[in-house]
Amino acid sequence: MHTQYEIFCEILGEKLKPYLNKKIIIYGCSRGGDFVRWFLQRYYSKKVKAVIDRWELSPMVTIPHLWSLYYIYDEDDVIINTTAINIVDEFDDTGEKWQNLLYEKKQIVDLWNQIYEGGEARRKGSGNYEITYYDWLEYTYQIDLLTTVKRAFTQGEHAHGYVPTDFRIFLEGFQKYELDVQKDAVLDIGCGKGSGVIALYNMGFRKIGAVEYTKEIFNTMKKNLELLDINFIEVDNDGTNKASMNKVLCYCTDASQLEKELDQYNWFFLFNPFSLEIMKKVLDHICGSIKTCPRKVYIFYVEPIGHRLIMETGVFELRHKIMTDMSDVSYYSYIYESKNK
Ligand SMILES: C[S@@+](CC[C@H](N)C(=O)[O-])C[C@H]1O[C@@H](n2cnc3c(N)ncnc32)[C@H](O)[C@@H]1O
User: Fold this and answer.
1) Where are the beta strands (DSSP E) in the chain?
2) CB of 197 closer than 6 A to ligand 1?
3) Which segments of the chain belong to CATH 3.40.50.150?
4) Is residue 34 in contact with ligand 1, taking CB distance under 6 Å?
5) What is the CATH superfamily name and number for domain 151-338?
6) For 109-148, how does the pLDDT look when each residue is reduced to its tens digit (9 = 90+)?
């Protein structure tokens, strides 16, 4: 059986394959354009010729303006439109004329329309879907992953807001390890709406736990899992359930309250969920758990603001520093391993 990620890759791959022997120019440098650039590189070792845009010109990376179509022309080019915008109209809207270009309209591939079938695909109140895995999941299964929740609306004085972890971060981190997804058990600490859980599930993990303090966000995660047909159990405060195969254990509580529950996990994933005050307590509990239940433990920490605290425990060593480069922002992830065997 294919995972949802494999299905998405197959759909996107099929649309892109006919152009792999061409020079690819991507139109659109926001989330979607960047995802397609990454996808071509990762799965087809295909480097794109350029990413162009009219508006979203990045000061950090070189994104040529749409007008560059005047001078970067090659007859082997295809322009893959990753946005809902009509490129010809957009070009003419700049005061220039598409017909003055050497490009023919047939060199444009309307990828966005092919993925989102006809242009009606708008996310509720948040603009169009983009061509990324999470957007596609939202569109296909009507889930809610991408809308962020500001800090002011999350539970706990030291809590950070909800932002989903980009799927690429999981792929790039876990590919460093030979995982035994039937045995390895991972707890997403500050799991938000479940983007991490969904990513972990798609990567094959079958022992997953998820803890989220804010009730509303937690409820959204449960609904998302239901819509995606991912089984879960909501764990009561007595925490008696054991990491069970094929059922995500969901805890709606402050992560620093979990203690004995931690014994069943050997991976802890965090995307900078809270400030150092809570991180310190969580770390104390993880270290305590290693003492009572000796085992090798890994901490996968995205945006690791608590790095110094982890090093100060003396229990962990930093094994990997990974930078995931995305169009708008790049994140560092640090992976720590406990020193015991
Ligand atoms: C950046 S989001 C992480 C999203 C998720 N881990 C993922 O991979 O997509 C951080 C989440 O941590 C939650 N959080 C903050 N403090 C918490 C605490 N003390 N216990 C549990 N969850 C907490 C926030 O409500 C927010 O949803």
Assistant:
1) 23-27, 50-52, 77-81, 108-109, 185-189, 207-211, 232-234, 248-251, 267-271, 298-302, 316-325, 330-338
2) no
3) 151-338
4) no
5) Vaccinia Virus protein VP39 (3.40.50.150)
6) 999 999 997 656 666 656 788 999 999 999 999 999 999 9
